[in-house]
TrEMBL record, chain B:
Family membership noted in the UniProt record: Belongs to the ABC-2 integral membrane protein family.
Keyword Transmembrane belongs to the record: yes
ABC transmembrane type-2 domain: residues covered: 27-252
GO cellular component: ATP-binding cassette (ABC) transporter complex
Compartments reported by the entry: Cell membrane; Membrane
Single GO term (MF): ABC-type transporter activity
InterPro entries on file: ABC2_TM, ABC2_TM_bact-type, ABC_2_transport, Nod_factor_ABC_transporter
Protein name: Transport permease protein
PROSITE patterns registered for this protein in UniProt: ABC_TM2
Highest taxon in the source lineage: Bacteria
GO biological process, one term: response to antibiotic
Membrane disposition: Multi-pass membrane protein
Keyword annotations from UniProtKB, A to Z: Antibiotic resistance, Cell membrane, Membrane, Transmembrane, Transmembrane helix, Transport
């Protein structure tokens, strides 16, 4: 049974797709365990939506194979469709229908009995706090409400696997938090979530595993922690109460860099418990008192830079004042 | 549920949706009759007196205005189909295995019905302005037949254009030739009174035989040759629109 825990909900190998001479997917392999959240992280134009379109049977890949919910997307599209739900990049709700009518329309298209359709609609409206707005046209909804309605429409069919293409792009911080909460609840119920995002924070916050997509290729995959550890530059920062402590520590910890003004020492290391304990033991042996210790791991933005060697994910999120929307600007980022 | 009953159920669901759209956006109907009504007044009361067409001018112009009404009523369809495409609504339906036929047929049928309502209104106005057709029941049925055929052809073309266009604005622009072509036909003056070039163009474009056929039915003297030409044009245009829509529906994910 596909939905069984720890089985593969989505397995893809060697997916390729190009339009004319532009390669959008250049050999993508994916493995998403059932009941987990998987984030496909990448800048605009990396191929995220194309990947979703291939996995959801909307697009035929030029090469490669994808199995979703145990069925081949090319040869068993119908079986795949029966098991999945998709919420696209734009809230695809019908503006001239009310929230309730939108949901009932989905129930009708799924050929559910009338009574069941009404029951599911009422439950989803309640769950997404849309009961009050149920009778209003979707055109009058806020951005956050539209996204919720959009997701609710996807849930009418009770899919095993849900694809969310940039589910929070354009949402205000509060609506984004609400959406995250909803996504976590879905997984708690056993649903598998495949989401794409260009927000580091979102992948970090939600995903069990993250794959980084860049120009149609996966450049890394792992948990947020694993990805961060792959990047050189993790270090432990120690602060001392006086100059003497700093001197002694600098002597016994080779490779460290000292800052006399701040009375701090920067020691390369991944911050793992074992190495941390060894470090403290050495300082203890010299009776050096440490006032403060902190472990600095690079964030996913550093990861992306280190993995691709070009550009960051979302220019505006990383301050520095320079917009870098296409994520392909070597120099500026290199100079950062 | 068999494929056919599923498809019929989906068509009903999509029809209900399109029907609600029209009811909630009555401006689309208003717009569809506003321009043709203006043309009617302009041609009959302002310009038409100067044309000699051999019959009462309102009787001559009404068939042209009726066909223009078909062309002026399609704007909302192009926009609606395009927004279904660009907002991902159609992709949502495709992932739900809703048949292509259900989605597209609903748009076409809704457009044809809306057009027929607008045309009924325009014919009412024409009667008030002195339109006196000599058609009996069979001729009226023939007239309705050619109107429905034209509306079907134009609707399929519009749905296809709406699917293919990159934006609602783009979809709207594709409708402009359809609004201009009737002016270069025998809608308001007979083709043989036009200058060289314009006359040949008018004679060989689809709207002239279509309007002549409708005029023929309404004044009781349809020519078999023209009627066949008009029907062939309608069938051809509908087929082109239908095939184009099919391709766009599947291709644009």
């Amino acid at each position: 049974m596909v939905g069984a825990m720890n089985g593969s909900a989505i397995a893809a190998s060697g997916l390729r797709k190009s339009y004319k001479d532009k390669t959008v997917l250049d050999g993508v392999d994916l493995d998403v365990r059932a009941g987990t959240i998987f984030a496909l992280l990448g800048p605009n134009g990396a191929g995220k939506t194309t990947t979703v379109n291939v996995l959801t049977t909307l697009l035929t890949p030029d090469a490669g194979k994808a199995v979703v919910a145990g069925h081949d997307v090319s040869t068993e599209a119908r079986a795949v469709r029966a098991a999945i739900g998709v919420t696209g990049q734009f809230a695809s709700v019908d503006n001239l229908l009310t929230g309730e009518e939108n949901l009932l329309m989905m129930a009708d298209l799924l050929h559910l009995p009338k009574a069941e359709g009404r029951r599911i609609t009422a439950r989803l409206l309640g769950r997404f706090e849309l009961t009050e707005a149920a009778g209003k046209l979707a055109a009058s909804y806020s951005g956050g409400m539209r996204r919720k309605l959009d997701l609710a429409m996807t849930l009418v069919g009770n899919p095993q696997i849900i694809f969310l293409d940039e589910p929070t792009t354009g949402l205000d911080p509060r609506s984004r938090r609400t959406m995250w909460q909803i996504i976590r609840e879905l997984v708690a119920d056993g649903t598998t979530i495949f989401l794409t995002t260009q927000y580091l924070e979102e992948a970090d916050e939600l995903a069990d595993r993250i794959a980084v997509l860049d120009r149609g290729r996966l450049v890394a995959e792992g948990t947020a922690g694993e990805l961060k550890r792959r990047v050189p530059g993790s270090h432990i920062r120690l602060r001392f109460t006086d100059r003497h402590g700093l001197d002694v520590a600098a002597r016994v910890l080779p490779g460290s860099t000292r800052d006399d003004e701040e009375l701090t020492l920067r020691v390369p290391g991944d911050g793992g418990v074992r190495s941390l304990r060894a470090l403290l033991d050495r300082l203890d042996a010299q009776s050096v008192e440490v006032e403060e210790l902190s472990v600095h791991t690079p964030d996913l933005d550093d990861v992306f830079l280190a993995l691709t060697g070009h550009g960051n994910l979302t220019g505006h999120e990383n301050s520095g004042g320079h917009e870098n929307p296409d994520g392909h600007d070597n120099e500026e980022v290199g100079a950062r | 549920m068999s494929a056919l009953t599923a498809s019929l159920a989906d068509s009903t669901t999509m029809m209900r949706r399109n029907f609600r759209h029209t009811m909630r956006n009555p401006l689309t109907l208003f717009n569809a009759v506003l321009m043709p009504m203006f043309m009617m007044f302009l041609m009959v009361y302002v310009l038409g007196g100067a044309f000699s067409v051999g019959v009462d001018y309102v009787d001559y112009a009404t068939p042209g205005v009726i066909i223009m009404t078909v062309c002026y009523g399609i704007g909302p369809t192009a926009t609606a189909v395009n927004s279904d495409m660009t907002t991902g609504f159609i992709n949502r339906l495709r992932v739900m295995d809703v048949s292509r036929a259900a989605v597209l047929n609903a748009h076409v049928i809704a457009t044809v019905l809306r057009t027929l309502v607008a045309i009924a209104f325009i014919i009412g106005v024409a009667f008030l302005m002195g339109f006196r057709p000599s058609a009996g029941l069979p001729q009226w049925l023939g007239a309705i037949g050619i109107i429905v055929l034209t509306a079907l052809a134009i609707s399929w073309l519009t749905v296809a254009a709406g699917l293919a266009a990159k934006s609602p604005e783009g979809a709207g622009i594709l409708g402009v030739p359809l609004m201009l072509l009737p002016f270069l036909s025998s809608a308001f003056t007979p083709a043989d009174k036009m200058g060289p070039g314009a006359r040949q163009f008018a004679e060989y474009q689809p709207f002239t035989p279509i309007i002549e056929t409708l005029r023929g039915f309404l004044t009781g003297t349809p020519s078999a040759g023209t009627t066949l030409t008009a029907a062939a044009w309608c069938a051809g245009l509908a087929l082109v629109g239908y095939l184009w829509a099919r391709v766009s529906f599947t291709k644009r994910a």
